[in-house]
Amino acid sequence: MRLVALAAGLMTALPALADDLPSWRDTEAKARIIEFVETVTDPDNADYVTPARRVAVFDNDGTLWAEQPVYFQLLFALDRLEQMAEADPSIANTAALQAAAARDMQTLMEGGEEALIEVVNATHTGMTVEAFQDAVADWLKVARHPDTGLPFDRMTYQPMVELLRYLRDEGFTTYIVSGGGLHFMRVFAEEAYGIPPNQVLGTYGETEYRMGEAAPEIVKTTGLSFLDDKAGKPVNIERVLGRRPILAGGNSDGDFQMIEWTTAGDGARLGLIVHHTDAEREYAYDRESHVGRLVDGLDKGPDMGWLIVDMAKDWERIYTGQK
Amino acid sequence: MRLVALAAGLMTALPALADDLPSWRDTEAKARIIEFVETVTDPDNADYVTPARRVAVFDNDGTLWAEQPVYFQLLFALDRLEQMAEADPSIANTAALQAAAARDMQTLMEGGEEALIEVVNATHTGMTVEAFQDAVADWLKVARHPDTGLPFDRMTYQPMVELLRYLRDEGFTTYIVSGGGLHFMRVFAEEAYGIPPNQVLGTYGETEYRMGEAAPEIVKTTGLSFLDDKAGKPVNIERVLGRRPILAGGNSDGDFQMIEWTTAGDGARLGLIVHHTDAEREYAYDRESHVGRLVDGLDKGPDMGWLIVDMAKDWERIYTGQK
Lengths: 323, 323
Hints:
homodimer; alpha/beta; Rossmann fold; 2 domains; 9-stranded mixed sheet; 13 helices; HAD-like_sf (chains A, B); signal (chains A, B)
């Protein structure tokens, strides 16, 4: 036993020769990622970047976890509305809310953006940030994905979780910059990705500081404050981080400007697009999809040197929750 | 020589017994700060706080550096306007801008908030964030304070700079949360306080991502986006940090809600007000001042356990730039 413990101790003391990205197959994609990281972390390289400037940003829906058949946050909103309407049917007091509570998706979608805003307002406002986040945490414990049966926070992509960890091990700071809800994502981002609340950027509604019954509180009120999508992404990064990232990853045209701004900087840069090509193990979609539509990234990305990751070809494993 | 080097090496290897706050006199204020820090960093204490949650937030104007005779950022705006009007007199095309460019403070102040907004728009917008920050950096190199003759970034408070360093040495993350301009403060915060750009929160105007002549850029456009003052401070902290601080320091009623929210949390908390009591070495002002007005903090703070720092009594030294 003692010898075994000693041997184990020696093993862990050896330099890490193990593969940092075991779920990435040995394709060009993996080689390019490693080459980029080795370039910016090598003090003797002309493109060396100090740790403080090793900023990596990633979209969430479709980049770090799945987004089909619809954004998971919408499924949360519908489940929550159903639950609220069961407790108090008067809550579903418009045609859109009635359709949503009854899972009549066709009527809901016909209502367009306005109908969705009604659903978001009914389910995401009128409570403290804390109470909202408790509701999200409760939902994540019991909700299951309609296709895979997995908990939603186990539908994160194993290769991307490995990439985040590898980057941090190499001195990067990793951020989420997503169109998804800021308060929604913060509930699982730390456990799922190792990304703490202050490194999560997202879309947010208005919030209000006020004196509650016993103590001050911050309440989610009606109204969108910031949409973290398209040109909003570089704007938000500049506001919150104050530094241009050197690596940006996304999967849809909502990420185009973020990757464009990142890769337009001086020195070594990496832009990365996760291309959903795997109808068998995940989903296959791009130009015509109602979520995660990807046209510009495919048409212009390669000419700008962006790495297009082919899920079917480049990834050995998909979900963290897979057996 | 070798023995001297060895002795020096031994000295630095010894545990740090030196005073972390040498510019704080041995008064109750210093004792309370140290007691708080020792409480939350002691794993055996019931009020122990993990490093990830050791978040400390500080106002800037009047808390970390001086703010008299007016906010330094206004002096920058006036200098910049004067310079711009010299190069192109047509810029001063309103009564308020003409008054500002001519340093006719009385006329400018009579114009109220609208006149000030005109000055900010003329001097803080219509250029990239980068170009604006270069202008601030250039100004800091040559501008001197009207009373002390010091560069503005040497009018930071030595005791507060020591406090920031002490907190970081004890595992805290230190943030600025100020009504001052986000882009303005980021220019000097890292060198002056050791606070990197992503730990600076402030007031910001609208910015726009757009394709420039050669590359994409982020431009400061007209219009206020967020006022980081009063109830806006806890709202901004919640948005950007996602965690409630355990220490908050300010000097005016604009900081009241930030300190209130911080100290209303569970466990050990420290709220701190810098009270400007030293007419001889700095300035003495509170209830009637046109900048840094302090009424609620004095009337209600002590009952909520806030520490009121008496500059004249508690500080041995004031400015970092003092001989």
